[in-house]
Amino acid sequence: MAGSIHTARLRCKAQVVLPKAVWQALYLKPGDTLAFAIDGTDVRVVRASSESYDLFGCFSEWACEADRKGYADL
């Protein structure tokens, strides 16, 4: 794993404050969304933009255009 490692403590209600170096590296600002990719006990945190984060990509049964239109406002 290249780069540096930063830590944060899990608080009550499962809240975590991201270290400054982390939110700066991801160019995060208030209101941005994070995505978590889980592989066993490894978790990768990435910035999720509304354009690139496709909820329907996980579910092939919702992959048709009619379903995309029907669920667009959820």
Radius of gyration: 16 Å
Strand content: 15-25%
Helix amount, in percent?
10-25%
Q: For the record, what CATH class applies?
A: Mainly Beta
Tally of strands: 2
Q: Would you tell me the structural class of the helices and strands? A: alpha+beta
Give the strand line-up of the largest sheet.
1-2
Largest sheet data:
2 strands, antiparallel
* Overall pLDDT score: 79
* Assembly annotation: single chain
Elements, N to C (H/E): HEEH
Shape: elongated
Distance between the termini: 37 Å
Question: How many separate domains make up the residues?
Answer: 1
Low-confidence stretches: none
The number of helical segments is 2
CATH architectural category: Ribbon
The CATH topology turns out to be Pemi-like Protein 1, Chain: D
Report what the structure shows.
This protein is α+β, with helices and mostly antiparallel strands and 74 residues long. It has a single domain, classed as Ribbon (Pemi-like Protein 1, Chain: D). The protein has helices at residues 20-25, 65-70; strands at residues 33-39, 42-48. The protein has a two-stranded antiparallel ribbon. The chain is elongated. The model has no long low-confidence stretch (mean pLDDT 79).
List the helices and strands and how they pair.
Layout: H1 20-25, E1 33-39, E2 42-48, H2 65-70
Antiparallel strand pairs: 1-2
What is the gist of this entry?
With 74 residues, this protein is of the alpha+beta class. The chain has helices spanning 20-25, 65-70, and strands at 33-39, 42-48.
Note the main attributes of this structure.
74 residues, two-stranded antiparallel ribbon, elongated, single chain, Pemi-like Protein 1, Chain: D, alpha+beta
